[in-house]
Queue: 2 jobs
Job 1
Amino acid sequence: MDKGTPDKGAPTPFSERFRGFMPVIIDVETGGFNPRTDALLEIAAVTLDMDENGDLVIDSTYSFHLDPFEGANIEQSALDFTGIDLNSESRIAVPESLALADIFQAIRRKVKQYECTRAIMVAHNAHFDLSFVNAASERCDIKRNPFHPFSCFDTATLAGLAYGHTVLARACQLANIEFSNREAHSAAYDAQKTAELFCRIVNRWKHMGGWPLPQASEPEESDTL
C-alpha cells in the first residue's frame, strides 16, 4: 500500500484527530487590513501529514506572489512593513484566481487522501488570513473553497497557552524553533514557521497524554444488582 493511503472502511487517525477537519497552515501578506478593498500580495499554504506515531509533520509548501486585483488599495505602510517591492524584476506574480486554484486543488487532494470532511485554516491571528482568503475566493467566483467558512485554529492563541507568548517570532524561540527576523514577513517563510509551531504544540500535547484521550474504563457490575 502506498504511504499515506488509508484503508478503505477504517477512519484514518488524521481524520479522527480534529473532528474530521484537515488543518492547513496559511499565511498572507497584504496591502492593508481591509480584505474587501486592500490587495492580497502573497499567499502560502503548508499541508501536513501524520506519521506512524500519530505526530504531525510538515508535508508540502505552496507559495505565490500575486498581482493586485483591479482597483485594489495598497498602503505604503504595508509595503514598508513587509518589504515587498512590487516593481522588483525577481517578483514573478500571478493572478489570484490561478494561485487559489492551485492551492485549493492541492488541499482537496489532501482532504480526500485522509478521508477528512473539509480543510480548516491554521494561521497566526487566523481570522485576518481567513478573511482575505474568503474575500479573494469571492472575487474569483470560486465555488468550492475547501476551508471552513468561519472556524479556524489560531497559533497566536495556542502559543499563548503553550508558551505564554503570542508573537510568532518569540513563540518560535520559546519552542526552540529557529526564526530569522530578516526572512520574516514573507508568506512562505511565515507559513512554514507557523506550521512548525502548530506541529510542535499539537505533538507536545499528545506526548503529555492529551490525545488520543484515554479510554474510559468500563464500569464494574454492582454486587447489589
Note: The CA atoms of residues 219 and 225 lie 13 Å apart.
Job 2
Amino acid sequence: MRLIWAQARNGAIGAGGTIPWHIPEDMRHFRELTQGHPVIMGRRTWDSLPERFRPLPGRANIVLTRDPAWSDEGARTASSLEEATSLYPDAWIMGGSQIYAQALEQASVLGVAALHVTEVDLDAEGDAFAPSIGPEWRPVATEPTEGWAISRTGIRYRFLEYARSQPVG
C-alpha cells in the first residue's frame, strides 16, 4: 500500500475542491504510478475530480463514505479505510487530507510501505493540507536527484519517495 500526493511549501494540497496549481508532469507521474492499481479516496476527493475523469480509467476507484446509500457510476464504496485496504492491499491512497492523516496514523497496521510526494516550490492558498511526515519515514529517492524540475507551466517541483524506517533492535 502506498500514499501519493502533491504539496506546496506550506503543505497545501487543495483549495476549494481543486489543486491550487497546474503541473502536467505531476499528473502524468500520478497516472504512471497508479495505472493498473486500485485507488482509494475520500468522497470529497471523488467529488473534486472533474466528471470527465471519473472514474479514473484503468484503476478500480474505491470511495470511502459513511453514507451507505451513496453510489456513483464507476465507484466502489467502502465504509472505512480498514475495509478498503483489506479488500485492496495493493492500492494507492490518493486523498484527501483526512484519509492521508488516518493512513499515516495507522501505517503499520494498514501495511503502508511508501509515500510518494511531489513537492511544489510555491506557497499556495489552501483549505486542505498534507499530513506531517514523521521520523519513521526516510527519503529513498528524489527526482531530480538534485535541485528542481521545471514544469512547462513554469512551476518548480520534485518527486520524493519515502520508505518506513526499519525498527532498531
Note: The two ends are 25 Å apart (CA to CA).
